[in-house]
């Protein structure tokens, strides 16, 4: 065994993920100049391991490899080992994941990538079993010492590919309304008509793509597009990916039927799905969709909210060393907890049996999606309540309690939508409180910070921190008129730090960190909506609120930059295409005046928020004159008044909720696709 001394430097870090590795025998460094300098001085390659606190396979690789002395010795002798939390440093994760995907054709976490001392990747992969990993370490060490030219050539080629990521899409071109039929056709190619969703196992929810399809269903009037969204959301709500006992969605389903989840719960997934289900409820008025959103928001308030108001990041899949243990039930345990009637109802509605459906135990999933609301009635409601009480006394999975500005922005927007659509004040209060938490703890005079944990803020904000928080603030503004000024200030900061004045679009980083290999600029959605797509919609809304033509031109330049690629792959550019839908539809502008505590004003807002009208801007502010859109709109006869305009046309101001509803209905989507265009892009998905 090597006598080399080492110091694991992760114990002082704030990241829960890094602290999980603080007692490994590996000579870990956090990302930073100290590790990079040592690699250069000792002429050693860097082993970079990227993961996150609630990642199941990250835990597996830690137990198999990073807790193993033989692996630790190999890393200590021949490498500089760096551990990164991808949720703290998405900029690094984005760069090196792109490299791994280019090298291997796949990606995932834990990510294992080898770098030269100048930070250029030359080989990588994801999870490796211990014996494979030891063999890889040995081979790379040998090639580094004796065939360095091979590594240098590989690193040069990969770096060239990465450098192009800063250019955005290199084939700029116009985007037009054909993008909508292309998005439907592309989605239909992989849509699962039996179980919903796209592709086979594993199956991910992809809320950005479904929210775009909802917009297209509204634009085209094609019920088959709506059916894709509704069918999928019913199947997900009935399946095991949804937590029927405590609310909220797991990360993904390991099977095509949404039955067996990968049990971790992520804040960003639940924020996106809440927004999707609320919009689907507005569109269809199916109460199942409202109830799913309500239960998910209540889960976040109960289990994922810091006392000060910020929202935690995630809950692990594992507890007591076993994936899903917190969520599953022995049949005998169910019989002992429940009355005979409660057990029989549970068995009738859910897939419950003595043999179980997950490693000999039972994970709850409805047998019929249309029975979702029956969960709240009679013996079944009592059964689920008892199970929740018992489960709450179990050892919970690890909760990652770092608070990320970007993901909080997504959940602030979801909470604000929850207030608008469901009318429950607690959601608006939660959105306000989280916003105040960020202002107090993660924002200073000229920048956002990314992460807060254990009383300390750190890491400069990236583009998604700004874009998602601005989007959340704009949703708050639509709720009660508050926070518009903060949104405008943050947009100015985002432009100053990230806007590419030469070619348009936003870089992901601000260029201030010399250890970031390249400044990337992309518009594809991933598990979260792409911040360039979100920013395009933010800019268009701000244009309507402020009448600032420069904001509109910025969005137009983004459509030009990313347009050609978005036309080819619209399903993967859903956030950007959604912004284009807003742009090409000529948004409705609605100003509602009157005292905040006026019941008549509340009725006008209830009408406004009760309909699915994604292409609108709303000023609901008793002091709205500070926004140019609202100037001169002071109310009629001292009553709360609604002003509805679109393009250069305005309706007569009204204080009558019914008349407001009629005015909103008069403004149909513009540039509707012809029936022939719609038919060409929407093959039959679900039988009539």
Written overview of the protein:
With 688 residues, the chain is of the alpha+beta class. The strands form six sheets. Strands 1-3-2-4-5 form a five-stranded mixed beta sheet, with helices on both faces.
Features:
688 residues; alpha+beta; Glutaredoxin; Glycosyltransferase; 4 domains; five-stranded mixed sheet; four-stranded mixed sheet; 25 helices; 49% helix; globular; disordered C terminus
Question: In order across it, which strands form the biggest sheet?
Answer: 1-3-2-4-5
Mean pLDDT figure: 92
Residues in helix, %: 40-55%
CATH topology of the largest domain: Glycosyltransferase
Corresponding CATH architecture of the largest domain: Alpha/alpha barrel
As a percent range, the share of strand residues is 5-15%
Number of strands: 19
Unreliable spans are: 680-688
The main β sheet shows up as: 5 strands, mixed
- Name the overall outline: globular
Which structural class do you get from the secondary structure elements? Answer: alpha+beta
Number of helices: 25
Using the coordinates above, name the CATH class of the largest domain.
Mainly Alpha
Oligomer: single chain
Alpha carbon gyration radius: 26 Å
In total, how many domains does the architecture comprise?
Answer: 4
């Amino acid at each position: 065994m090597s006598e080399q001394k080492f110091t694991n430097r992760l114990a002082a870090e704030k990241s829960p993920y890094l602290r999980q590795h603080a007692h490994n025998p590996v000579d870990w460094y956090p990302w930073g100049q100290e590790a990079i300098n040592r690699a250069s001085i000792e002429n050693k390659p860097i082993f970079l391991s990227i993961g996150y606190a609630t990642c199941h396979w990250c835990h597996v690789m830690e137990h198999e490899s990073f807790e193993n002395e033989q692996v630790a010795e190999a890393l200590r002798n021949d490498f500089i080992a760096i551990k990164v939390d991808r949720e703290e440093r998405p900029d690094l994760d984005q760069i090196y994941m792109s490299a791994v995907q280019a090298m291997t054709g796949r990606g995932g976490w834990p990510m294992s990538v080898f770098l030269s001392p100048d930070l250029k990747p030359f080989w990588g992969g994801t999870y490796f079993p211990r014996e494979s990993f030891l063999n890889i370490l040995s081979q790379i060490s040998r090639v580094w010492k004796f065939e360095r030219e091979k590594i240098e050539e590989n690193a040069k080629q990969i770096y060239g590919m990465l450098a192009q990521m800063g250019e955005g899409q290199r084939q700029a071109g116009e985007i037009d309304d054909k993008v909508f039929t292309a998005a439907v056709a592309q989605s239909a190619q992989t849509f699962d008509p039996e179980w919903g969703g796209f592709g086979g196992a594993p199956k991910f929810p992809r809320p950005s793509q479904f929210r775009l399809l909802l917009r297209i269903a509204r634009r085209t009037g094609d019920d088959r597009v709506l059916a894709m969204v509704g069918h999928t959301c019913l199947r997900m709500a009935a399946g095991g990916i949804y937590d029927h006992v405590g609310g909220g969605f797991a990360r993904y389903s390991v099977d095509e039927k949404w039955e067996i989840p990968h049990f971790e719960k992520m804040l960003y997934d639940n924020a996106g799905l809440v927004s999707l289900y609320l919009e689907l409820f507005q569109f269809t008025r199916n109460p199942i969709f409202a109830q799913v959103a309500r239960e998910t928001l209540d889960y976040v308030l109960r289990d994922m909210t810091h006392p000060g108001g910020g929202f935690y990041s995630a809950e692990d899949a594992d507890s007591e060393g076993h994936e899903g243990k917190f969520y599953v039930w022995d049949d005998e345990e169910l019989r002992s907890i429940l009355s005979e009637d409660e057990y029989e109802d549970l068995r009738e509605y859910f897939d419950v049996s003595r043999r179980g459906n997950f490693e000999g135990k039972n994970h709850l999933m409805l047998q019929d999606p249309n029975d979702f609301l029956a969960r709240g009635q009679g013996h079944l409601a009592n059964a689920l309540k008892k199970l929740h009480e018992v489960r709450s006394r179990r050892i919970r999975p690890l909760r990652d309690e770092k608070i990320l500005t970007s993901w909080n922005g997504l959940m602030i927007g979801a909470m604000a939508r929850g207030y608008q659509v469901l009318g429950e004040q607690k959601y608006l209060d939660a959105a306000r409180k989280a916003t105040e938490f960020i202002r107090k703890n993660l924002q200073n005079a000229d920048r956002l910070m990314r992460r807060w944990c254990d009383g300390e803020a750190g890491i400069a904000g990236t583009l998604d921190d700004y874009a998602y928080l601005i989007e959340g603030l704009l949703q708050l503004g639509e709720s009660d008129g508050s926070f518009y000024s903060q949104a405008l200030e943050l947009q100015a900061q985002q432009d100053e730090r990230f806007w590419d004045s030469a070619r348009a679009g936003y870089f992901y980083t601000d260029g201030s960190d010399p250890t970031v290999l390249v400044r990337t600029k992309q518009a594809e959605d991933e598990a979260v909506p792409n911040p360039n797509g979100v920013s395009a919609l933010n800019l268009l809304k701000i244009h309507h609120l402020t009448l600032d033509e420069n904001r509109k031109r910025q969005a137009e330049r983004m459509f030009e930059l990313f347009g050609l690629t978005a036309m080819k792959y619209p399903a993967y550019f859903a956030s950007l295409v959604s912004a284009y839908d807003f742009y090409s539809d000529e948004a409705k502008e609605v100003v509602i005046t009157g005292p905040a505590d006026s019941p008549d004003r509340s009725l006008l807002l209830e009408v406004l928020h009760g309909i699915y009208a994604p292409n609108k801007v709303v000023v609901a502010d008793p002091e709205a004159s500070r926004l140019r859109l609202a100037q001169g709109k002071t109310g009629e006869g001292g009553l709360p008044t609604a002003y509805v305009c679109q393009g250069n046309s305005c309706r007569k101001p009204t204080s009558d909720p019914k008349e407001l509803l009629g005015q909103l209905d008069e403004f149909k989507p513009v540039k509707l696709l012809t029936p022939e265009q719609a038919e060409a892009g929407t093959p039959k998905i679900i039988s009539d």
